[in-house]
Each structure stands twice: as structure tokens, then as C-alpha cells.
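Record 1 of the preview.
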Amino acid sequence: MKQLLRTNDPTVIAFAKALLQGEDIACFELDVNMSALEGSIGILPRRLMVRDEDLAQAQRAMRDNGIELDE
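->
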């Protein structure tokens, strides 16, 4: 799996997951439960992972919809 997106903003993660679902791209969110350890203040970013073979298509979907990626 490859990291597609890393952000502290849960709304960006939700939007990205919806876009990927619309493109039939499977994704997995990492670090979701870290908020319990940090006290839910949002300083630790969440990561959105996709399969290696879906990375290029997923990146294109993010860029086409205005989501900035760390590349």
C-alpha cells in the first residue's frame, strides 16, 4: 500500500474517501485511533492509503477535485 494523503483535517479525509469510493478505488485510513492518545486535539495527522496499482488514478482524482497532495 502507498500513502495517498496525510492530513489533520477529518473533512478532507472524508471527502477523499468519498471520491475514491466513486472511482471504485479501495482505501484504508491509518492513525484514526491516535486521537484518543493525543486527547482529540487534532495534532497527529491521519493517513489515507491505497493499493500500489491504484495510486496514479487516486492521485489524479484528488488533484481533479482540489485536494493537495504531498508528493
